[in-house]
C-alpha cells in the first residue's frame, strides 16, 4: 500500500464511522473498535503510576456499555525474578444487564495490554453496567522490583462491587467519581513497553470513558 493510501484510507474510515473487527487475546470472540462513538466525559483516579505511554481509546459499540470485565494478570514470579502484576483490562460490552441477561454474546473494548500473564474469568454486573472504579497500585520501590498497577475494583450501577483477580502488592486508592451519563463505555490504558534486562511494570494507569 503506498504512503498516500496509508493516510487517506484511515480518514475515510473515520468519516464514515466504520467499525473495524479483529481478534483479541482478551476474549474468544470479536473485538470491536468503534471509531465514532461520542462520550460525555471520562473518570480517573489519582494513584496511577507514571511509567509508559497512553494507548488508543477503545469504545464499546453503540447501544452497549461495559457490563463486565476481565484482567490480564502475571502471577507471582518468585524471588529474584521480575513481577509485573496487572497487564491488561478488557471491558465486556452488552446492553445494560437484567437478571435474565445472557453472558454468551458480548463485544470487547480493550486498549493497550502488557506482554505477560493470563486473562482471568469474566465478572459481570448482576444488573446495570459499570459506573466507577478503584485501582490498587504499588508505590515506587526504589532499588526493589516495581509492579505499578496490581488490581482493580468496579462498582455497578446496581451498587454491586466486583474485585478483579489481580495481585496484592501496593494499596487501594480512592474511588473514582461516578460516570456522568449512563455508565462506562470505553477505556484507555497507560502501559510501559518491555524494558529488556531492566525492571518491567506493564500497566500503570487507566481512564474510562462514559456515555449517555
UniProtKB/TrEMBL annotation:
InterPro entries in the cross-refs: VOMI, VOMI_sf
GO cellular component, one term: extracellular space
Keyword Signal applies: yes
First and last residue of the signal peptide: 1-22
Domain of life: Eukaryota
Keyword annotations from UniProtKB, A to Z: Signal
UniProt key word Signal: yes
PANTHER family: VITELLINE MEMBRANE OUTER LAYER 1 HOMOLOG A-RELATED, VITELLINE MEMBRANE OUTER LAYER PROTEIN I-RELATED
Annotated protein name in UniProt: Vitelline membrane outer layer protein 1 homolog
Amino acid at each position: 500500500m503506498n504512503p498516500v493510501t496509508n493516510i487517506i484510507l484511515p480518514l475515510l474510515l473515520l468519516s464514515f464511522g466504520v467499525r473495524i473487527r479483529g481478534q483479541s487475546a482478551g476474549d474468544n470472540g470479536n473485538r470491536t473498535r468503534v471509531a465514532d462513538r461520542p462520550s460525555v466525559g471520562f473518570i480517573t483516579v489519582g494513584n496511577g503510576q507514571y511509567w509508559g505511554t497512553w494507548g488508543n481509546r477503545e469504545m464499546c459499540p453503540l447501544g452497549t456499555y461495559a457490563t463486565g470485565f476481565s484482567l490480564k494478570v502475571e502471577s507471582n514470579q518468585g524471588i529474584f525474578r521480575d513481577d509485573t502484576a496487572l497487564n491488561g483490562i478488557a471491558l465486556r460490552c452488552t446492553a445494560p444487564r437484567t437478571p435474565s441477561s445472557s453472558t454468551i454474546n458480548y463485544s470487547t473494548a480493550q486498549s493497550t495490554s502488557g506482554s505477560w500473564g493470563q486473562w482471568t474469568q469474566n465478572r459481570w454486573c448482576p444488573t446495570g453496567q459499570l459506573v466507577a472504579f478503584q485501582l490498587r497500585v504499588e508505590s515506587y520501590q526504589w532499588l526493589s522490583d516495581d509492579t505499578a498497577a496490581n488490581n482493580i475494583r468496579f462498582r455497578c450501577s446496581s451498587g454491586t462491587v466486583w474485585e478483579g483477580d489481580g495481585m496484592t502488592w501496593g494499596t487501594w486508592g480512592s474511588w473514582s467519581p461516578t460516570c456522568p451519563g449512563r455508565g462506562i463505555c470505553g477505556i484507555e490504558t497507560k502501559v510501559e513497553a518491555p524494558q529488556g534486562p531492566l525492571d518491567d511494570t506493564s500497566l500503570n494507569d487507566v481512564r474510562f470513558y462514559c456515555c449517555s
